[in-house]
Amino acid sequence: MSSVCLSMEGGAAASTPAALPYYVAFSQLLGLTLVAMTGAWLGLYRGGIAWESDLQFNAHPLCMVIGLVFLQGDALLVYRVFRNEAKRTTKVLHGLLHVFALVIALVGLVAVFDYHRKKGYTDLYSLHSWCGILVFVLYLVQWLAGFSFFLFPGAPFSLRSRYRPQHIFFGATIFLLSVGTALLGLKEALLFNLGDKYSAFEPEGVLANVLGLLLACFGGAVLYILTRADWKRPSQAEEQALSMDFKTLTEGDSPGSQ
């Protein structure tokens, strides 16, 4: 009991695993290179981005890579990077990054649907488009559920504890689906734009293949950091106290029985 009280009164902050900062830095290098190379591909080979023109479509891949891949990945890493900050501050940052990702992804969706409408193209016929809508809907539902359980002040601690494993699982799953959907879209764009020339090692095709590898590597780096059990954020004193209270309520224990 005395050790718990000592930790609640403000014990030493938990140390950061030695390798964690290097893996996080590597993931950020991959992510920023991914975003820069996506912009380079669109600028060098697709004419750049302009909303009121035939280049409106190009906003779609850039927004999706920034929002549903890079920012979503960074939002997932918040609890590994900010290990000793107040839990509520970390939650707010986690939620805000997801909001930014959602807004940017929404711009990307509007861009592609508006472009198709202007050109008279059919919507939602490809596997990429089906996966894209699924990912966006799941991501929105995941954010709403996370806000309701973890940021909304009226959510009971018991419900938060029961929902947390599902939230973690679906967060990683949606991120993985986002990376896979981006890869599908990249391959679809190459087949549409290059056709038979894709097999001739056109420079655009080679650059886009490297972009695909960066997508896979960024996704793998983020998932590796998330799945290392020894890199999880340590429980803070306030979380330990809440956990003890919840255990007391559910198991019928009392402080006097210990």
From TrEMBL:
The protein's required cofactors: heme b
Localisation: Cytoplasmic vesicle, Secretory vesicle, Chromaffin granule membrane
Protein name, as recorded: Transmembrane ascorbate-dependent reductase CYB561
Organism: Rhinopithecus bieti (Black snub-nosed monkey)
Spans through the membrane: 20-44, 64-82, 94-113, 133-155, 167-186, 206-226
MF terms in GO: metal ion binding; oxidoreductase activity
Function of the molecule: Transmembrane reductase that uses ascorbate as an electron donor in the cytoplasm and transfers electrons across membranes to reduce monodehydro-L-ascorbate radical in the lumen of secretory vesicles. It is therefore involved the regeneration and homeostasis within secretory vesicles of ascorbate which in turn provides reducing equivalents needed to support the activity of intravesicular enzymes.
Record's keyword terms, sorted: Cytoplasmic vesicle, Electron transport, Heme, Iron, Membrane, Metal-binding, Translocase, Transmembrane, Transmembrane helix, Transport
A Pfam short name: Cytochrom_B561
Superkingdom to which the source organism belongs: Eukaryota
GO cellular component: chromaffin granule membrane; lysosomal membrane
Gene3D superfamilies with a match to the protein in the record: 1.20.120.1770
